Amino acid sequence: MKTDADNKKLLLPYFGLGCWQIAGTGWKGAGKDQGAETFATALNEGVTFFDTAPIYGFGLSEKMIGENLSQFRNRIIIATKCGLTFSEGKVGHNLSYDSVLHECEESLKRLKTDYIDLYQIHWPDTGTPLKETVKALERLLQEKVIRHIGICNYPLPELEKISGLIKVETVQYEYNYLQHELADSVMNFVEDKNLHFIAYSPLAQGLLTDNIGSGYSFSKKDVRRLNPLFNNRELFNESLKRKKDLGENTVREALRFIHSKKQIKSVLVGTCSRRHLLETKRIIEGLQKGRR
Ligand SMILES: NC(=O)c1ccc[n+]([C@@H]2O[C@H](COP(=O)([O-])OP(=O)(O)OC[C@H]3O[C@@H](n4cnc5c(N)ncnc54)[C@H](OP(=O)(O)O)[C@@H]3O)[C@@H](O)[C@H]2O)c1
Which pTM does this prediction carry? Predict the structure, then answer.
């Protein structure tokens, strides 16, 4: 783990805590206090890689990281994102020059830091030319407020284009036992260019855990309403059947599935539960040591 002093290469650990859930909004059963306790536990247990975004809890996830960071700052990697903006609860896609600079400034304030280790484009914005976004990122790199660039969720043609315009070091895609189509389509490019692949939603947003079964119901604010695995009843039921293939301990087997993919260099697991964090960490450490 660690960026080297000369800012040459980003070295990420295998496990990163996904900090969407700690904000306590949009996830069933989540609560801010529980999230803060989970984040503090992660720091104390030696987790060094934290993925967040302005949109997670509409700024709250970044704020909670910022509030608890001080003595750990130079020992951890903070990855945040730009491109998904929000105003009065409305979410938009914006990767224009001014918006990227503004978002970064706001993230720095919320995170209470003067640099972001890994700055990732969250989702494509088809309304902005890639060159314009790249210009903003270059400026932020020059100013040393961001150290490394990552891309999330880009289809292959756009990923190829942007990689030709600026040094991209990481990519982040949904990857789990049930969903990995887009990731598969970029994998050859990722390997050719030696990009660091980060998998998100390894537990299919909870579907591959015991928390979710056929009687699962959503609150109106549950973010999983946007996920076809959850909002398409037929696919949901089919996915629950496929989950059975994983056997008894679906969390462990879902993480083992990810771990077996050698192209995947890091995995983000999101939780607001201290107990789940510790369980996940133990499973991943076991997998890394080659134990069953
Ligand atoms: N770049 C992007 O576009 C993008 C998109 C989505 C996510 N992400 C990142 O990836 C992270 C992880 O992905 P995700 O949040 O979508 O989904 P995920 O990690 O697949 O699933 C999260 C869900 O799994 C549950 N869980 C976690 N560990 C568990 C355990 N040991 N036992 C039982 N349940 C467990 C959590 O519930 P509890 O809270 O109750 O533990 C939570 O509801 C996010 O936090 C975010 O940082 C990035």
Answer: 0.96
